[in-house]
Specification:
Structural class: mainly alpha
Number of helices: 5
Strand content: under 5%
Shape: globular
Helix content: over 70%
Largest sheet: none
Order of helices and strands: HHHHH
Distance between the termini: 42 Å
Number of strands: 0
Amino acid sequence: MSGYLFGLISAGLAGAFMAIQGSFNSLLGRKIGLWETTLVVHLLGLVLVTVLIFLFGVGKGNWQETPNAPWYTYLGGALSILIIYGVAAAIPKLGVTIATTSIVTCQLVTAAVLDHWGLFGLERISFTPLKGIGLLLLIIGARLILHK
């Protein structure tokens, strides 16, 4: 399987899992609270990834490179807290479709900015007129989905 196809399949599965996870998190949030849900999700994730790395040996094992990473790369954990909380808070108020539409639309606009400017050391991928048309169509489609 090519790297491109693997990437598309991985991204598609991640998107599907995000919608399912958001639904689970919103339901748990109703029962125990949104901040408590965020903590539970991260604790369970920590346990699972710890088992995967230390018992099953997945990963690169390049711990010695930890101090060499730019400081801002460690903000992913903080952003994850905001993401989980935000999704769990949005779904009960908007429904899965509208919340996910809003999330994906904002993700793509942000991604286009990150790509175009090559921010955070990422490869620079120019924003072309064709991508602009695609993004505009996405925003129009999102508006249609968001319309009541």
